[in-house]
Amino acid sequence: MFPSQYIDDLLKDIRDNKAMALFLGAGTDITTVYPEGAEYGGLREKLVEDDKGRSAKLNWSNLLEELIDAACIDDAEAKSLKGMTSSPLKAAILKNRMGDSYIPIIQSWLYSRCNRKILLDSYVSFEQYKNSPSVENLQKVPFGTLFVIADFILRQTSVRAVFTQNYNNFLSETISILLEKRKDSYCERRQGLKPYDVFSGWKDEPYNDDSFFIYHVHGFIPPPSEMLPNSENNHIVLSDEEFYQLSQNVYSWQNASQLHFLTHHTCIIWGLSLDDMTTARLLRHANLENNSEKVYWLRGGQNDGQDDVQSRLKAEYYESQHLCVVNDENGYSSLYHRILEELTKDEK
User: Fold this and answer.
1) Residue 269 pLDDT grade (very low, low, confident, very high; cuts 50, 70, 90)
2) I need a surface site. Which of 18, 215, 220, 298 has the fewest CB within 10 A?
3) Does the predicted TM-score (pTM) go above 0.85?
């Protein structure tokens, strides 16, 4: 079992309304179930398994597979690319080959697997969970993690900022759906909240106390119903050169803002691996030892194929870096259920 456990500390900080920032990764968008319903016309089946018989879940490995298939390269090159272990290198080669079609294909892939229509149907499952809260019901919610995070943001008014490495608008859409459907469930301070996706460090729209910014530190790709930003602002971080550029500019808004929150706020790392190069770099630069608040890393499950010694060594290292590992051996759904239960207690 992964030995570190700080769930009680996290729940206490939630009860104490500590000023918080969330750091989100691709894990927040992944689902293993999709909404049922005849109105999908076969969409669910298409999403669960694509025409090549492989899993079509929403993750970056499958995105790279999609890009390889769309790159118009011969079978030998495609096989070679799929065999590469470095995802950033794969992305760099594909970006170079695909040119102007690179971003539109990523856009199509993202929003065919999750969009407002799918999230509205997913809300039905989340409502069933809320009416009959149990870990088993939460596991049946399509894109359940997105709904848990959106609900957490709306209930936990001390959440000051969200930093996400995802390129899509799924979280802002989920927040909007919960405000439309369950407006009276949230305190007055959150009822008028307006989520904004920020991807260049600046918003043209006027903002006020109701504005809630979701900072896309790896760039943003809008849904197909909106125009893509011009090439200068349409920068995403997926290939190795883009990771290098991001790390090189230490004064960029992405680096400065994340480091500020990591060193001055209670932070929750959610859906991110600590092996991720951006997360690891920022944690190395942030002086967590002198931060009076905690930085939590949420994980679920037991050892993920690692033996007990490996898990112990990793946990000891994370603690030496002043990270608080919150692990639930029963999985992420169990952990998220416990967090939502705590929020519900405070409302009674």
Assistant:
1) very high
2) 18
3) yes
